[in-house]
Amino acid sequence: MRRLVILGGGYGGLRILQRLLSSYLPIDLEIILVDREPFHCMKTEYYALAAGTISDQDVRVAYPQHPKFSFVFGEVTNIDLENNQIEIKDRDEPLAYDELVIGLGSEDKYHDVPGADEFTLSIQSIDGARQTSQVLSNLPPNGIVAIVGGGLSGVEMASELRESRPDLTIQLYDRGKRILSDFSERLSSYVEKWFIEHDVKIINESNITKVKKNKLYNNGEPIEVDAIVWTAGIQPHHLVRELQVEKDRYHRIVLSPHHYIPAYPNVYVVGDCASLPHSPSAQLAEEQAEQIVSVMIKRWNGEELAELPPIKLKGVLGSLGTKSGFGVMGGTSLTGRVARLLKSGVLWLYKRSNV
Fold first, then answer.
1. Disulfide-capable partner of 51 in 34, 99, 160, 265 (CB 3.0 to 4.6 Å)?
2. Is the pLDDT of residue 143 over 90?
3. pTM of this prediction?
4. How far apart are CA 11 and CA 17, in angstroms?
5. Structural domain of residue 283, as residue ranges?
């Protein structure tokens, strides 16, 4: 019996699993998914879970059921590419594989800022989002929350928290001259205006040099706060960073044109751990997963691999609370209620299609 092991049930891992289970699979193939959570978690909504506007249940999606599929609950502790096996915490024997998909996702990147990993809150994992929610929910009235990082995650976190806790003082720190530097100036200005109207303070050209308990240092100046949420960048899972394979400058694994590791053609990498010509996102992971499945099926059928087309993304949507939003779809900038309704619709369709 041949065994395909998928590490991580994120957006890429789940899409691979779904597409394979709906295909005609080789009779001698079994598929095993390994994850720390017994359900798929919608990471794009962790900011709302952390802010307290949705519940834990709202970000869960059950894994499919199929006679060729089984699930292993646990934390991966080592990936042994030479011996084709995976070590899992509290499991006596390693899990052997014939083919492997690495989709372990990403972690916070702290940019070597002293104290950032110890004294800040995270929204990069469901456990982190739960802990962040608990801390923020228990803050006293008029508490001060610093959010470090003015990209998409930081903006959505700040706006959602403003809606959840209108009594809090919210400060958004960003290194650039404007927040949302990956978006157009028009969209950035729209979001900045929204923050001004909703009393969220933006601190541009900040440089967080050190973090202590309830204190951060911006350009050397100490600032007392009640909580700090870190949204200032991501990096691949630490096990991926430790693998002795070629990586790009972001520590993501360099792949062949067909998404496998050149030195290990039986090992594919999907999502945030893969070096791709786009910034990491759920949409990118799913589109890459579609291509990986097509490659797998052709190889199983003994067919020649054709050149894969470039991955094209539909756009990006962000929320500003429950009533406003922003984004780019098909090259067109969107702001206001239409953008928020579109994002809500995309989320509803995703959950419905995965029921």
1. 160
2. yes
3. 0.95
4. 10
5. 2-36+74-107+234-300
